[in-house]
Structures are given as C-alpha cells and as structure tokens.
Amino acid sequence: MKKLKISNYQQILTLTLVAATTITSTTHAAFAQLLRGAGDSFAQPLIERYSQEYQQETGGNFRYSSIGSGGGIRLFTNNSVDFGATTLIPTPIEINQMEDGLLMIPTGGGALAVVYHLKEVSSNVKLSREQLAKIFTGQITNWQQINSRFPNKKIQVIVCSDNCGTNFILTKYLRKITGGKIVASRNPDWGFRVFSALSQDGEIAGEVKRIDGAIGYVQTNVALKNNLSIASIENKSGNYVKPTLEETKKALANVTFQDDFSTEDIQDPENGYPLVSLIWLLVHKKYANQETLEKTKNLMTWILTKGQQLNEDLGYTKIPDDVNKKVIKAVNNEVSISPF
C-alpha cells in the first residue's frame, strides 16, 4: 500500500498557523501575544481542559491545534508555534534542528482505545495479542475469525493517515508482540488495503460509528465522548483489560525518566492496559520575545502544578511528584530569553 499523504485539512491548518505567526510577529506592537501550540490529538482532550481552567483561573489564554505529533514537532522546530505536544520523543535529527533548544515536559499518561462497531454483537469484544496484530496486518479480515458467534462480516480497518503519535503507539506495541515483524512508525505501511485513513481522532471515531464492521483506534476520551464500543485487549500477563485509569496507571507504574525527561519506549507492560503512552509538551530553551517567554513559563508551571489535578478527571495519569519537581525546576532555570 502506498504511504498516505498529509490530508488537505492538515495542509490548510499548517499554512494557517504559519500565516498567523507572520501576522502576529508583524503586529506585536499593537496586540498582545497569544500563545500558540500544536501537536498530537492524543493530548487534545487534556490540553483543551487545561485551556478552559487556565483561562478561568488566570485570565490567560492560548490556542492549540491538533495536527498530529509529527506536525506539532515540525511547526515547533520551525518556530511557527510557541510549544508543541507529542507522544513521540523527537529523533536526534529533529532535536538537532531545534536552534532555540528543547525542554521536554512530561505532562501525563493516557491510553489508546481500540474501538469497533458491530450492530449484531451486544457482548464485549475481546482481542488477543495475536488477533490484534493480524487485524492490523490484514491477516484476519472477518469478524467470525475473532469469534465464531460473531456475524459473518468483513472487518473494515480505519487508521490514522498522518504523521501521528497514535500510529506509533499502536505499531510499537505490534512490533514488540510480533518480535519485530511489524515496524514501529508514525506513517506505517500497513501492507494491505485499509477501508479508510483519516487525520483526526474525531474523524476516525465518526467513521467507526458510521460503518458496521469497523475497527479503529483513538484516544480513550474520544471513544467515550462518541459512545463507541471499546475492545478488551490481552496484556502480557494474559489478562483482557480495558483502557481505564486504573489499568493505565498499572501500565505506567514502572516508567523510568532520563535526565532530559525522556523515557524508554513503553512497548509491552507486564500489567495493566498495554496500549499506553506519555505526553510531553515541548518548549524552547530560548525565546526571542520576553512576553512569550513569561507566558510560556507561567503556563507550563500552572500545568505542572494545578493542571496536574485535572488529569485523572479525564482518565490521564499524573506525573510522579519527584519527577514533577525536577521538571518545574528545569522550566524555571533552563528556559530564558535569547541573547540574540
């Protein structure tokens, strides 16, 4: 299957963001700076909640565009936005291109729900590790191959089309459980003809809801908001679990943070729900504009303190307290005005 191109929607949104950046920079004397962020749809429900509470509490405001982790990293690198959001750790090449430096801010952890639509099935669908891998490699194509009591109906696979973190969360798990036969990628070549490929979690959710026999994957909050059926997935211990907050906490319990606040890939946790990821906000270490610098530091400090209390309301985990304190210190000490 050919690799899928960035959607027209994302192209237009990217151009709009770049244009907005130009307009903002040329009219700074007349208008106050509005912080702009862009990145992963996986983080969008949490960031939207941050935005609502932050504005209500502080009067501060920011704009966030959900265009995928890859798109967020690209716009952040190009200085087209003030901060990014990602479930992917930027590659060494990408970090090298960030002329104003990078501070990665872990913000929370969440789960990727495998969602489906089967009109004739009222019971919960359980997918083994092998079945999940075979569905997303085109080796299982009919629901009766999952369970003989399911209808004789073609499985319509719906995927993310763009350079997105949800693709990476799914494929890095499939890579682990298949012994490397599947390549972890932001833009996977699925190796078969999928039913449709869409750029946003909301679009994928809508398509799954519309198509009987469909299966796809979205951030858990998006699945719940759209009243989608969520499959139970077999974990490494052989238990079938759903992406609840409790199971997400179990899966992320043993994550170790490095000095730069990155982590080892979370590929196949022993306990809990297996399709999980951390979320990082990306900020520059140097900002050319004093107002943008102050607003960015204020926002990040708020997210790491009061904002953390909102995470579990939306099913996201909080960052451990000891790590959180180190991140706050890094924001205060390492993010500053550019001397040039």
From TrEMBL:
This is Phosphate-binding protein. Residues 1-29 form the signal peptide. GO terms for cellular component: ATP-binding cassette (ABC) transporter complex. Keywords: Phosphate transport, Signal, Transport. It comes from Pelatocladus maniniholoensis HA4357-MV3. GO terms for molecular function: phosphate ion binding. Belongs to the PstS family. Pfam families: PBP_like_2. Residues 28-304 form the PBP domain.
